[in-house]
Specification:
Helix content is 64%, strand content 0%. With 211 residues, it is an all-alpha fold. Helix 10 packs antiparallel against helix 11. The longest helix has 21 residues. The protein is globular.
């Protein structure tokens, strides 16, 4: 699984006049301003700051959790990519990026995701249970999991959300390999690496060491 398109690192907030955006208030600027703003210089600092703004908005009630779950739908996955894609994978921003990208993948390629899940879950294992996908893994069930993972991250236990996302990525990676994707550096490998990073981020979160 990869990001959607090539995104320049300097694109931070999409201008309200951009035609593709359905809402003039769909970016992170109101949240940042409401929470006192921040001053950052490096992309890493910007990624960390915006990730914390998002979590604070969800947990302190200054942002609608349902709207924040669907944030990528409103501002574009490219905008979140510009903020978080290059963040350390084992970080709050990196974890959020993986979870938003997982939800985006499920929603934009439901047939592929269901096929991969169906193949991967046949191998069993605890990941199938941890991921929490309905026994009938159709597009709606997978979409519900994408939403639930982000909901847990935003207003629940961030570590649980990271573990659950990691489990989904591992099962999907097994599904890729089950259909013959054995290349050493391909998408199956990328999904496995994402799962490993999410699991490590969960460990760090519980240890109070996640940046």
């Amino acid at each position: 699984m990869t990001g959607s398109g090539s995104v320049g690192k300097e694109v931070i907030i999409v201008e309200p006049s951009r035609p593709r955006r359905p809402s003039p208030h769909a970016d992170l600027t109101p949240l940042i301003d409401a929470l006192g703003g921040f001053e950052v210089e490096s992309p890493d600092e910007r990624a960390a700051a915006t990730a914390q703004v998002l979590l604070r908005a969800a947990r302190e009630g200054s942002g609608d959790p349902a709207a924040l779950i669907g944030l990528a739908d409103r501002i574009g996955i490219e905008t979140l990519a510009a903020l978080w894609r290059d963040a350390a994978r084992e970080s709050t921003a990196g974890g959020l990026w993986a979870m938003y990208l997982l939800r985006h993948w499920i929603r934009t390629a439901p047939v592929e995701v269901v096929e991969l899940w169906t193949r991967g879950e046949r191998m069993g294992g605890p990941d199938v249970v941890v991921a929490g996908v309905d026994a009938r893994a159709n597009a709606d069930a997978m979409s519900a999991v994408g939403d639930a993972v982000l909901a847990t991250a935003l207003v629940g236990d961030f570590g649980v959300a990271l573990d659950r996302a990691a489990a989904v990525f591992r099962v999907l990676a097994r599904g890729r390999r089950a259909r013959g994707e054995f290349d050493g550096g391909g998408l199956a490998w990328a999904n496995e690496q994402t799962a490993a990073a999410l699991a490590e981020a969960a460990r760090r979160w519980r240890a109070g060491q996640l940046g």
